[in-house]
Amino acid sequence: MSRIRIPSSPPSLLLLLFVFVSCLTLITARQTRDESSYQKRDFHTLSNEDITKLVNLDPPQWNGVDEGHLGKLLIPRASGSQNNTLVQNYISSVFTNLGWHEEKTPFRGTTPIGDIDFQNLIYTFDPSAPRKIIIAAHFDSKWFPDFPANQFIGATDSAAPVSMILDLAEFLTPLLNQRKGRVDSGRGILKRDFDEEEVAETTIQFVLFDGEEAFRDWTATDSIYGARHLAELWQNTFLPSSHPLNKRRLSPSPSVLNTIDHLVLLDLLGNKHSMIYSYFRETDWLHAKMKSADERLQHEGLVEVEKGEKEWFGDMRMRGGIGDDHLPFLHRGVSIFHVISNPFPKVWHTLADDASALSLPALRRWNRILRVFSCEYLGLGPLSATTSKSPTKKTTDELRINGMHMLPLARTYKTIVE
Ligand SMILES: *[C@@H]1O[C@H](CO)[C@@H](O)[C@H](O)[C@H]1NC(C)=O
Ligand SMILES: [Zn+2]
């Protein structure tokens, strides 16, 4: 705004008003342009009626915070421990029963307390899809050397986010299977601005990180062991020549990292209070969509809002960020939405971060927010009667080429931001 000069002669009120309005217009125009250039994909907003149907489809079965999946995760589970393996086996059994593709990335890492065996767990609904959204959380809990601190549970950090992922996977699986059935038999829904076959090219992947916690004090080398390993592994895993991204002849050759449209990282959630800010301008719009999901759920009376907890999503657009599993991906150009409570829960890294720190209404609210957000991102809805055989069936190649327009080019956003 520095180029707008305030006239030196006594300005008339009208002139001042004019300058003020011009500034406003400039700001508004700028924001509109920014938002449209960052939003690289369609988002399929559901009607309030559909949201109600989704929420009622399969209500959470549990009536206490230690029931259901969460109950299986609320144990000390530091990386490399037997309990950590138990938790891994449990997560694996849930996804295997649901029929998801499983990938494990075992590796040995050097830590201040010696070498530790880590393993990330990765679950994909459709491993052949060319693009994906990732929703991630870490399943390890912080290691402490002595009793009683070594009984640290980390309920919000991040047993609850992992249980949200398991609940979400169970909820999404039938919807994803139904769509796959329609698309495979050529009966995908085709409406104005909506081609189910094309929409299905974006799959969902859940990444459960091991070794997020530092063994001593958080440093670049003592923290996020699993995430650092995976980001590097994917950077060096190049796509097969048959992958649609390879047709763009990118240089350097596209890697698995290029297939990630967005990485949504959940951390420090499940207690009564949450305050989620947006840290990255290119995903401000995803933050706005999640906020909108919460608002619509509240409007329809589908979530219980505890006293003083109406606003979980702050409008302030943060600069900088919070160190977490997203960093090695961010630094390699992946688009990040960091869903982390700021400030951290009061119980953070204390023995009090156990089942008693969690709130059942808050867990249910998160559960529903994530349902609506994921369905809208993926273009999924409750089974609708409006199906049609696509009259103008496109060839696979055309579809893929269309889909590719929406693929983010790693690192290009950096230029847009600056
Ligand atoms: C493993 O979990 C159990 C609870 O199931 C707990 O009592 C035990 O102390 C944990 N082991 C370690 C080494 O933390
Ligand atoms: Zn932690």
UniProtKB/TrEMBL annotation:
<dbReference type="GO" id="GO:0008270">
    <property type="term" value="F:zinc ion binding"/>
</dbReference>
<dbReference type="Pfam" id="PF04389">
    <property type="entry name" value="Peptidase_M28"/>
</dbReference>
<dbReference type="InterPro" id="IPR040234">
    <property type="entry name" value="QC/QCL"/>
</dbReference>
<comment type="similarity">
    <text>Belongs to the peptidase M28 family.</text>
</comment>
<feature type="domain" description="Peptidase M28">
    <location>
        <begin position="120"/>
        <end position="372"/>
    </location>
</feature>
<protein>
    <recommendedName>
        <fullName>Peptide hydrolase</fullName>
        <ecNumber>3.4.-.-</ecNumber>
    </recommendedName>
</protein>
<keyword id="KW-0479">Metal-binding</keyword>
<keyword id="KW-0862">Zinc</keyword>
<keyword id="KW-0012">Acyltransferase</keyword>
<dbReference type="GO" id="GO:0016603">
    <property type="term" value="F:glutaminyl-peptide cyclotransferase activity"/>
</dbReference>
<dbReference type="GO" id="GO:0008233">
    <property type="term" value="F:peptidase activity"/>
</dbReference>
<dbReference type="GO" id="GO:0006508">
    <property type="term" value="P:proteolysis"/>
</dbReference>
<dbReference type="InterPro" id="IPR007484">
    <property type="entry name" value="Peptidase_M28"/>
</dbReference>
<feature type="signal peptide">
    <location>
        <begin position="1"/>
        <end position="29"/>
    </location>
</feature>
<dbReference type="InterPro" id="IPR037457">
    <property type="entry name" value="M28_QC"/>
</dbReference>
<keyword id="KW-0732">Signal</keyword>
<keyword id="KW-0645">Protease</keyword>
<keyword id="KW-0808">Transferase</keyword>
<keyword id="KW-0378">Hydrolase</keyword>
